[in-house]
Amino acid sequence: MKIQVLGTLCAEVNGRSIVPTAGKPRQMLSLLALYPGRVVPVSTLMEELWGTKPPQSALATLQTYILQLRRRLGSAMGPDTPAKEVLATRHGGYVLAIPSDSVDVHAYERMVAEGRSAFEAGSDTVAADRFRQALMLWRGPALVDVRVGPVLKIEVMRLEESRLGTVERRIDADLRLGRHTELIPELTELTARYPQHEGLHSQAMVALYRSGRQASALEVYRRLRIRLIEGLGVEPSPRVQRLHQAMLVVDPQLDVVAGPRRSSTFDLYTA
């Protein structure tokens, strides 16, 4: 079985889709898929499907959804593996008994962890590659075609935050590798999409500065400061102000040479 949640919901067994067409069964499958091999309590499933006020028939309806999904599984798997062994009943809940790497989100999180370890060890090329591979698993916003309830909403928010954080870490690795010029178009788009995100703006400033565009780097700071003051009533954080000041005085430590792991001023000013 292969399940994808990083984009549209896809779930296939032997090349056949088992994704339900109705909304609530799709929610149920999505939630079970996020926790492969782990019991999802009935109470959690019911909260996702009906919120804090489930109807009196909620338990019976949930059991019907489980039976419907098992029929889909059974049709796709054939007679050799009983569907109720894959979508199994456990005390107080249900479990999708499949390996975690059968679901794209878990493969994504494994690659991110590998990238983070490589980055901390100074293996910037490996780190950038792992982060890129992880991000390539995304085919759009998480569960973009699923109507999410309160439980899945939190999971989707967590995944989208993780995605943005992985983009930042990949850009950090690329900056340490001296790829500042080629990062400028991507960072221009990202700072426009996230106009108050200090980390992305700091990265854009560094990429521009190291590409010989000091005035453009300072303009990025100016626009960020205006947005933060007008939108939130706050000044940029001390770390961003330190980076700005370093650019004003043309601190030679802001320059970087591509190569093995080294202590860069980008790390110093944005730590």
From TrEMBL:
PROSITE patterns: OMPR_PHOB
GO BP terms, alphabetized: phosphorelay signal transduction system; regulation of DNA-templated transcription
Domain of life: Bacteria
A GO MF term: DNA binding
The OmpR/PhoB-type domain, residue ranges: 1-98
Record has ATP-binding as a keyword: no
Family: Belongs to the AfsR/DnrI/RedD regulatory family.
PANTHER family: TRANSCRIPTIONAL REGULATOR REDD, TRANSCRIPTIONAL REGULATOR REDD-RELATED
Protein name from the UniProt record: AfsR/SARP family transcriptional regulator
Lineage start: Bacteria, Bacillati, Actinomycetota, Actinomycetes, Kitasatosporales
